[in-house]
Amino acid sequence: MSYYTKIDQLVKAATDENISIGELTLKEEALNSGKSEEECYARMEKQLTVMEQGILEGLNSTAKSPSGLTGGDAVRLHTYAQKKTIGGKTIVNAIAAAIAVSEVNANMGRIVAAPTAGSCGIMPGAIISIMNEYNIDRKKTVLALFTSSAIGLVISTNATVAGAEGGCQAECGAASAMCAAALVEMFDGTPAQVAQAAALSLKNLLGLACDPVAGLVEVPCVKRNGFCAAHSIAAADMALAGVESVIPPDEVIDAMYRIGKEMPVSIKETAMGGLATSPTGKAYAKKILG
Amino acid sequence: MNVFDILGPIMVGPSSSHTAGAARIAFVARQILGEDVTSAKILLHGSFAQTYKGHGTDKALIGGLLGMYPDDDRIRDSFKYAKEKSLEYSFEPTDLGDVHPNTVKLILTGVSGKNIEITGCSIGGGNIKIINIDGIPVDFAGNNPTLILPHKNQPGVIADVTKILADKNINIGTMKVFRTDKTDYSIMVLETDELIDDATINKLSALDSIIKTMLIKPL
User: pLDDT tens across A30-71, in order?
Assistant: First the structure.
């Protein structure tokens, strides 16, 4: 069992073989699991389908979550996106789709943990909106999900993707890095640009607290998934333009881990600090949890 | 780790530990009971006790007891299905002592009147551990076909069991035996590489030293 544990190894291997990181990861996964590439691909495509279903469900429902804290914003944004918007249709649709999936999650619908349930809207929101907007081949998109996984595996190996361990920078930060990497590959960026997108995306979310109201995956999580979808698109565009992170990708991941360790427990998914202990946050917690 | 550990699993929200993991514990518990559940007293510990309503831990547990997988979106309406299936249940926050923050104890009765008490923890990412059956501490995840055999404390039991499996060409992956001073029997837990057929189960059940034969088929 082996997989790439550093981003620079991943970039070098893909560049040397003259294939995309997604193609490389699919090959490695087949080797490691003893399954055929077709089986691995089919399993990933199923996950893409579940992501698409999540967006559809969320964009067609104004149902409130059991706690009443969230629900209805995806429809609000989707309606708004049909009119004149500041950010343009692409961005607003990606935000709407990301929030749609996160609302489905909050309402006990079916999602793909990407890499966690709390960050499950970011990747489908940006990746599927961009796939549809630019008519990107479905196969290319599925391969880009393998690219995301490769980036996520490196983050999880050298740092963490758990909010309880590293704060939200670990969950939404990892999801945004994985998402930006996939977008660059969908737009035919080089493996090095894929890695830069991941680094730029994660770097800009360093230090982010995980302070959910009542300990539920809703406030601020649902809207943050929308923000991070737009954020990932920005990071991908920067990388495709040739912008590079001064701090190399592997060092950004390492920094995320060190910051996570230094963060106080009160803002690492314990609902003991930040927004969770604001007067309104506490009032909601009392109302919901009794 | 593989790519699907990081992108995946497919699950119902909102929380892999509080929802998907809870459904999985209950699903495994129902398999251990071996029949439909008619009554469930559910004791919630730690974070489960504090946040079970907001995370839908209660609905996930009932869904699992009804045999729903952690990715079954009927889980959100599981209380309705429980009513249809005449499953009676209650939830009680409690303190189960020095255990994982996401721990639940399920006191179950099945259609034939069988009773069992199972404690499980949700340890993150939808993964679980069963830590106690009928008062005996155990430790397994239920990811593989798993045989759970409460048996009398007498020589030769393990040899009898492994011979039956060997004759069927079933490879044992892991094997543990658990006992306490409080009970006059022990529990053997075997994870196997192959699925175990009914004929083998019947052979095991026919052994004098075996008190009960319970089987988990992986999700």
Answer: 999 889 999 999 999 999 999 999 999 999 999 999 899 999
Class of B146-216 in CATH: alpha beta
Domain ranges of chain B: 10-133, 146-216
Model pTM? 0.89
Contact state of B10 with A46 under an 8 Å Cβ cutoff? yes
Residue A156's domain comprises 7-289
Provide CB contacts within 8 A for A76, sequence distance 6+: none
B11: left (phi over 0), alpha (psi -120 to 50) or beta: beta
Q: How many angstroms separate the CA atoms of A37 and A29, rounded?
A: 8
pLDDT tier at B180, thresholds 50, 70, 90: confident
Does B24 reach chain A within 8 Å, measured CB to CB?
Answer: no
A interface test, pick of B3, B4, B17, B68 with most A CB neighbours within 10 Å: B3
How far are the Cα atoms of A130, A211, A269, B193 from residue A282, in angstroms, in the given order? 38, 12, 15, 49
Query: Helix, strand, coil % (nearest 5) of chain B?
Result: 35, 35, 30
Is residue A115, in this structure, part of any structural domain at all?
Answer: yes
- The Cα–Cα gap between B87 and B63 comes to 11
Q: Which residues contact A58 (CB under 8 A, 6 or more apart)?
A: A74, A97, A99, A100, A101, A102, A103, A104, A109
B174: phi then psi, degrees, rounded to nearest 5: -135, 155
- Indicate left, alpha or beta for B183 from its phi (over 0: left) and psi (-120 to 50: alpha): beta
Homologous superfamily (CATH) of B10-133 is D-3-phosphoglycerate dehydrogenase; domain 3 (3.30.1330.90)
Domain membership flag for residue A2: no
User: What percent of chain B has a predicted confidence (pLDDT) above 90?
Assistant: 84
Radius of gyration of chain B (CA): 17
Q: What is the number of structural domains in chain A?
A: 1
Chain B residues with beta carbon closer than 8 angstroms to that of A123 = 7
Position A1 in a domain: no
Alpha carbon of A22: minimum distance to chain B alpha carbons (Å): 11
Does residue B126 belong to the interface with chain A, where contact is any CB pair within 8 Å?
Answer: yes
Length of chain A as a residue count: 290
Residue holding tokens 């749609």? Answer: A100
Residue A171 covered by a domain? yes
